[in-house]
Amino acid sequence: xxxxRHIVLGVHITDRTRHAHQVQDLFTEYGCSIKTRVGLHTVAxxxxxxxxxxxxxxxxxxxxxxxxxxxxxxxxxxxVQKMIFEHD
Length: 88
What we know:
Elements (H helix, E strand, L loop, with lengths): L5 E8 L2 H14 L4 E7 L2 E2 L2 E2 L3 E7 L3 H12 L4 E8 L3
């Protein structure tokens, strides 16, 4: 049996304080398709970056994964990139 494709998304969010709640709502809605989630942004004692990057390792049926990509991409200030790895 052929293993399912491995899909990893990079979600870049600009102006996190303005857009993060919409992104988080979608992450919750599609939570059953998210296997691993890693958030990256610059933090210092007196600074927290307004931009962030979230890496998502996806799992399961691909239909909701591509729905999530479309919905995230429709949010102003959000850019989604995907990596798809085929298993031979």
